[in-house]
Design goal:
Layout: E1 8-10, H1 13-22, E2 29-34, H2 39-55, E3 60-65, H3 70-75, E4 83-88, E5 91-97, H4 102-110, H5 116-127, H6 132-145, H7 150-162, H8 166-177, H9 184-202, H10 205-214, H11 219-231, H12 235-248, H13 254-268, H14 273-286
Parallel strand pairs: 1-3, 2-3
Antiparallel strand pairs: 2-4, 4-5
Length: 287
C-alpha cells in the first residue's frame, strides 16, 4: 500500500485478481501498467497518483509494473506502455495507451464514476434485506431518472418477488418484455414468479402427496405435486415428477411439465448437475 494514500497500491501477478478484479466489484479500479525504463510512464504515473489521493476513495489506483505482472499484462494484451485500464464490476469499461495531461485525465476519470441511477441502485442493494421499503423508494427514484434503463426495473421486480408481491413483480417484467426480449436476470425473475404462482395454486406439499397416494395414476394430482415441490425448492423430485409426465402425457400435462422443467433449469443455473442431468433426460423423452 502506498504511504501517501490507501487508494494507491502496487500489485503482482499473484495478487492481481484480488487487487483488481475483486476490488472493482465495490469501486472503480484504475490499473496502470508501467515500467521504470518507460519515459511517458514517469510522467503519467505521478499525475494518476495525485488524482487518486485527491479523489480519496472514489477509485482505487493499482500500479502494475509489467515485469512483476507479466501474466496480467498478457491477459490484458498490453504491448505498449503506459497502458491504463478502468474496471467496474469485474470487467474493463475503458482504457487508453500513452500519456495524458492532467486535464485529460480528470475528464477520463470523471466518466468512471457511477451515475445517479447507479448510485441509487447500489444504495438500494445495501438496504434491501433490512429495509425493503427504503430500497423500493430508491429504485423508483432511479427509474424516474432513467425510465428506459432496465436495470432498476429488474432489481425492483426481484425485490418485490422476495416479498411475495407476485402481481407487481410480474407487471414490471411484462413491461420489460414488451421490448421483445428480456435480460437473463429478468428471465430468471419471470421463471421464479411462474414457479411461485404454480405452487400457490397447487397447495401444500402434504396434501398433494396425499392425493397422489390415493390416486397414483391421476396425472393432474402428479402435476400439482410437481408444482408444490418446485415452490418449496424440492427441485430434484419436482423434475422427476415432471419428467414422468412428459413421458406419459406428452400432448397433455406433459407440456406444462416441460415448461416447468425449463423454468427450474433457469433457477438452479445452467452449470448445476440437476440441469445437465435432467436436460439430457428431457431431450431423450422428447426425441
Amino acid at each position: 500500500m502506498n504511504e501517501a494514500s490507501p487508494w494507491i497500491i502496487e500489485t503482482t501477478d499473484a495478487a492481481f485478481h484480488r487487487d483488481v478484479i475483486e476490488r472493482s466489484r465495490s469501486l472503480p479500479v484504475v490499473v496502470d501498467f508501467w515500467a521504470t525504463w518507460c519515459g511517458p510512464c514517469r510522467t503519467l504515473g505521478p499525475t494518476l497518483e495525485k488524482l487518486a489521493i485527491e479523489a480519496d476513495g472514489k477509485f482505487l489506483l493499482v500500479k502494475a509494473e509489467v515485469e512483476a505482472n507479466a501474466g496480467a499484462a498478457g491477459q490484458f494484451r498490453v504491448d505498449s506502455i503506459p497502458a491504463v485500464f478502468a474496471l467496474r464490476d469485474g470487467r474493463v469499461v475503458d482504457q487508453f495507451i500513452g500519456a495524458m495531461n492532467e486535464a485529460q485525465l480528470r475528464e477520463w476519470l470523471a466518466r468512471l464514476q457511477p451515475s445517479a441511477t447507479e448510485r441509487l441502485r447500489a444504495e438500494a442493494a445495501v438496504v434491501a434485506a433490512t429495509d425493503p421499503r427504503a430500497a423500493e423508494e430508491k429504485l423508483h427514484e432511479a427509474m424516474a431518472l432513467e425510465p428506459r434503463e432496465p436495470a432498476a426495473k429488474i432489481e425492483l421486480a426481484r425485490l418485490l418477488l422476495a416479498q411475495d408481491r407476485l402481481a407487481e413483480s410480474e407487471q414490471l417484467l411484462d413491461d420489460l418484455a414488451e421490448r421483445g426480449y428480456l435480460e437473463p436476470e429478468a428471465e430468471l425473475a419471470r421463471a421464479e414468479v411462474a414457479v411461485r404462482r404454480g405452487a400457490a395454486e397447487a397447495g401444500p406439499i402434504e396434501q398433494c402427496r396425499a392425493r397422489v397416494a390415493e390416486s397414483p395414476d391421476d396425472r393432474q394430482s402428479q402435476w400439482k405435486l410437481a408444482q408444490a415441490l418446485a415452490g418449496q425448492r424440492e427441485y430434484e423430485e419436482a423434475l422427476e415428477v415432471c419428467l414422468k409426465l412428459v413421458q406419459l402425457d406428452r400432448r397433455g400435462l406433459g407440456e406444462p411439465a416441460r415448461q416447468l422443467m425449463i423454468q427450474l433449469f433457469q433457477i438452479v443455473g445452467s452449470d448445476h448437475d440437476l440441469t445437465s442431468t435432467y436436460r439430457r433426460r428431457l431431450s431423450s423423452a422428447l426425441y
